[in-house]
Amino acid sequence: NRDVLLAPSILSADFANLGRDANAAVAAGADWLQIDVMDGVFVPNISVGLPVVASLRKAVNTTLDCHLMIVQPERYVADFAKAGANHITVHAEATTHLHRTIQQIKQLGLTAGVALNPATPLGVLDEILPYIDLVLIMSVNPGFGGQEYIQTSTAKIARLRHLLDAHGYPDMHIQVDGGVSARNVAEIAAAGANNIVAGSAIFTPQRPAAEMIELMRAALR
Ligand code: DX5
């Protein structure tokens, strides 16, 4: 089975000590760091934006994965690249011209992903697969950390992996985000996900991120 990358989401980190939390996760073996950008329009919450990406860029040495939960993300793709993002994922539901937006990200030298909300069918990906590096399957309705994993996501992940294998995309990342923890990560990876986002299962006041990352890794062995 594929190596599984761990991409902790900083949404549940301590924002008053973000550099500390981010470095703790990276030191504990996180592969990527996901920054959840929310505009209060595409999702019913507001999180962080460009200054936080720029500060994290200086503070950590890892792949910064910006998950743009914003409408018309094409307006800010260049700014996020300038702030130091290595990867940008946009929502298929948030941009009218998805192909042009993906081209824009790639022309900036970043890798590009398309995110699908739980009710958005895989068919939306049909014409964009040749141009992207990653598909993000949202397993919660985006906007908040700490929600319950939507169980039907597992079958959706499996169908996507079969579709990718059948159409010659063996290297496409399937990233899964929302309600993932040591309890369900093995099932999610077995279905074909190779890139795991977890927020509240990694950053929790009760236990250090290093311990939570080790729990997640142990569940994947
Ligand atoms: C939710 C965000 C997720 C969130 C995951 O809208 O996109 O990345 O941080 O949080 P958990 O892992 O706590 O469900």
TrEMBL record:
Cofactor binding description: Binds 1 divalent metal cation per subunit.
Binding site for a divalent metal cation: 36, 67, 177
Amino-acid positions noted as binding substrate in the UniProt annotation, renumbered to this chain: 9, 67, 143-146, 177-179, 199-200
EC number: 5.1.3.1
Pathway(s) the chain acts in: Carbohydrate degradation
HAMAP family with a match to the protein in the record: RPE
Protein name according to UniProt: Ribulose-phosphate 3-epimerase
